[in-house]
Specification:
The structure holds 2 protein chains of 2 kinds. By secondary structure, chain A is mostly helical. Chain A has one domain. Chain A is built from 13 helices and 2 strands. In chain A, a hairpin with a 5-residue loop joins β1 and β2. Chain A is globular. By secondary structure, chain B is mostly helical. The chains are: A mainly alpha, B mainly alpha.
């Protein structure tokens, strides 16, 4: 039972990274693109961003129901970065909707756009920082150590910041690839192809920097990967997908579907590989002990009811979600 | 400001902000689906225009509701980690159902808002109905979780730990049904009267036309039925609170001393030091009758509870008076509306009636905010009634007041932008919809 819940939690996290990530990335890409791209991006995001966003809510609900100690610990010590993520979520969602729905187009659109773009940068960076802090093992609950040690030091360090920038690059890369299939204008398509390539290289570079920053901060991520065959294989596979996607990007007629599957696979592989070395640890602490799926799980009766709700929910959600994407994504592409 | 108060204020502010969007998110899909259904049946474009005009506004409210709801799911932990650590496994179930319902709602809303030209008309309409149903369902689930805080059940509290957890029992606690009914009726009343009021105001400013007249009518149909049912739901709730949370009832009625018979205290300013209510209207035996159906029955007062277990009387009592007064006002208008629309339809076109409807605009939401204050403040000092004190649940992080300032500033700014956006939307109605120019 616990296994299925962990899988659903992992899947929601993965789907949020892919879909929500692409939405955040769209804001980043927009900052480097032009006016016409703004229209394409708005049109592509508008029908789906709210549904994409719910994967995060689902993950949070699973976390506080099934692993309550992890949720309460995270929200205590990582209060500041989480607050930044929340501000980013509020600002981005509101600014995007205001821009899309404001009937009168005037100077105010400039401010919506600015807010939308800035928060599209800030949120992924802090999401990455939070993830980094969970891995790095500087978290402590000993409040006698002082404000900085408990509430700032665990996340304000080189490794976490590099993780943050890595996440932003990854999201931008995902988004650029996704947008290649969203436009019918050749010039614009070429632009997204260019962005895809640049952000692919940038993401790979940042990925490398993650390992370097980890070793500088005394967290030997590389040897963790080397010690797990599965993780090593997923990492290599994800890297090998890069030239494949590059090849498809170079084709005159981009096979949108291959690009999307390719990118989806890459991100899934990276997350699965990371999950393998991390499992079952959710938060590594300074004291050397960890909060894991097993030592924080809620009682059986809770997990059982949660699973029923999740499975019943997924039966409703998955067909709905597929229908939504069919109506707005697949139909519009075949036109 | 101390951090504990800041945390409480931030939570109150966030919930008070979100509740408006939640009410709109529950009600507007039903109103839009109803209007679209009338268009499909009659073919009159005025109903289509109304649906479309509303949907543009709803998209904005829904998005802000979605993000402010996400904020709440994190804030529960950011501000009350100890509460969530213990309550998570117990009330996680309604939250996970709520997550599901909200997911369905978000998907169906995407289809409804953007699928006008892509879908069969009836499929489109069905998506609107699904938005409405899932919206109401998610409201019920969230309120059930809140009801559990008032009426904790489905676990045993042993040595500061919850054991023998039964999430189903926790969700269907003693308060879930009455609180859900009261909240959903409140959502329909507040939103419907606000919508009717805004359209009535536009009639007053720009003259009558088919668009606004039909919009007022559609909104009032739902609003008036809900507003007439609400006092009964309120009475049911009060009688139940008298049994389950006598301290809350005593606080909201400002009854300091246990009395037999107990008088009903209307209005006034409670004075905690002297334990009496100044400037109030006293109705002998009134409270005894309202709580027990008997003018001579005894009603428990605050004196039965140690001082540290009493809710703040001043805020709770005044909020309760505001809620009840607003509710009665709207129920009264609703009765008039139903009576007039049966036999005296010409009155509905009279200026004084339209002015009355326009003036009623804010009272539904005022009642919602006041009522929410009553239930939350009336539960204090407990976060889980009788089990865990709010002060024991607060985050140990120093400097919580900064996050209160930031969140407050952001929400005030957002509110101002939304009001301004709505004004812009409304002023361009006649430009986009022909029926808004027909007389």
């Amino acid at each position: 039972m616990l296994t299925i819940i962990i899988i659903i939690l992992g899947a929601s996290f993965l789907l949020y990274t892919l879909l929500g990530g692409a939405d955040f990335g769209a804001g980043i890409i927009e900052s480097f693109a032009g006016k016409r791209e703004e229209v394409t991006i708005s049109k592509a995001m508008a029908p789906v961003w709210e549904a994409n966003h719910v994967w995060l809510i689902l993950a949070v609900v699973i976390l506080f129901t099934a692993f309550p100690l992890v949720y309460s610990s995270l929200s205590t010590v990582l209060h500041i970065p989480l607050m930044m993520v929340l501000l980013g979520i509020i600002c981005r969602g509101s600014a995007f909707t205001f821009r899309h729905y404001d009937i009168v187009i005037d100077k105010s659109h400039k401010y919506y756009t600015l807010l939308f773009r800035v928060s599209s940068f800030v949120t992924p960076i802090f999401l990455g920082i939070i993830l980094g802090a969970m891995m790095l093992g500087r978290i402590t609950f000993d409040t006698t150590k002082g404000f900085y040690e408990v509430f700032v030091a665990p996340w304000l360090n080189l490794f976490c910041i590099v993780m943050g920038i890595f996440s932003a690059c990854l999201f931008a890369y995902l988004s650029a690839l996704f947008l290649v299939g969203e436009t019918t204008i050749e010039r614009e398509r070429k632009m997204y192809v260019r962005f895809s390539k640049r952000f692919m290289l940038l993401t790979m570079l940042m990925g490398l920097l993650v390992f370097i920053a980890a070793s500088i901060e005394g967290h030997d991520l590389l040897s963790d990967f080397l010690h797990s065959v599965t993780s090593l294989i997923t990492l290599i596979l994800a890297t090998f997908l890069c030239p494949v996607i590059w090849h498809f990007l170079n084709k005159q007629k981009n096979k949108t579907i291959y690009l999307r599957i390719g990118a989806g696979l890459q991100v899934s592989l990276i997350l699965i590989g990371w999950f393998y070395i991390q499992f079952p640890v959710l938060i590594k602490m300074k004291s050397g002990s960890s909060l894991t799926f097993f030592n924080t799980q809620a009682p059986e009766s809770t997990l059982q009811q949660l699973l029923i709700a999740l499975l019943a929910g997924l039966i409703l959600i998955i067909p709905g979600f597929i229908y939504l994407f069919k109506v707005f994504k697949i139909k519009s592409n075949s036109q | 400001m101390n951090d504990f108060l800041a945390a409480r204020m931030q939570m109150a502010f966030s919930l008070g902000f979100h509740i408006i969007f939640a009410c709109i998110g529950m009600t507007m899909p039903v109103l839009m689906a109803f209007s679209e259904w009338r268009w499909l049946r009659t073919g009159k474009t005025v109903f289509l225009d109304i649906t479309k005009a509303w949907s543009r506004g709803v998209a904005i409210f829904f998005a802000v509701g979605a993000v402010s709801g996400t904020v709440l799911s994190f804030e529960l932990g950011l501000l009350w980690p100890t509460f969530m650590q213990h309550a998570g496994p117990i009330i996680g179930m309604p939250f996970s159902w709520e997550g599901t319902a909200f997911f369905v709602e978000a998907i169906a809303l995407g289809i409804f808002l953007y699928g006008w030209n892509k879908l069969n008309k009836w499929v489109h309409w069905a998506s609107g109905v699904i938005v409405g149903i899932s919206g109401v369902m998610s409201g019920i689930f969230v309120v059930s979780a809140n009801a559990w805080m008032n009426s904790p059940s489905g676990f045993d509290w042993v040595n500061g730990k919850a054991i023998n957890i039964d999430p189903v029992k926790a969700m269907f606690n003693a308060a879930w049904l009455e609180q859900s009914i009261h909240m959903i009726l409140a959502a329909f009343i507040s939103t419907s009267f606000a919508v009717a009021g805004v359209h009535a105001y536009l009639i007053l400013r720009k003259g009558a036309n088919a668009f606004h007249a039909q919009a007022v009518k559609t909104a009032l149909i739902f609003g008036s039925v809900a507003a007439i049912l609400q006092p009964f739901s309120g009475d049911f709730s009060a009688k139940d609170i008298a049994k389950r949370q006598p301290a809350k009832l005593a606080a909201l009625e400002a009854l300091y001393k246990t009395s037999k018979p107990a008088e009903l205290i209307i209005g006034g300013i409670p004075n905690d030091k002297e334990e009496k209510v100044n400037y109030a209207l006293h109705i002998p035996g009134g409270l005894s009758f309202l709580t027990h159906g008997n003018f001579k029955a005894e009603v428990t007062g605050l004196d039965k509870f140690p001082k540290r277990d009493r809710p703040p009387v001043l805020i709770t009592h005044i909020a309760f008076q505001i809620m009840v007064a607003s509710g009665i006002l709207l129920a009264f208008i609703s009765v008039l509306y139903l009576v007039f629309s049966i036999n005296w339809r010409h009155i509905l076109l009279k200026k004084w009636w339209i002015v009355l409807v326009a003036c009623a605009t804010p009272f539904g939401f005022l009642a919602v905010e006041a009522g929410w204050t009553v239930t939350e403040t009336g539960r204090q000092p407990w976060i889980i009634y009788g089990i865990m004190r709010t002060e024991d649940a607060v985050s140990p992080m120093p400097g919580l007041h900064y996050s209160f300032y930031i969140i407050t500033a952001v929400y005030i700014l957002l509110s101002l932008i939304i009001i301004w956006l709505m004004k812009r939307q409304i002023s361009s109605i006649s430009q986009y919809y022909n029926s808004a120019n027909e007389i």
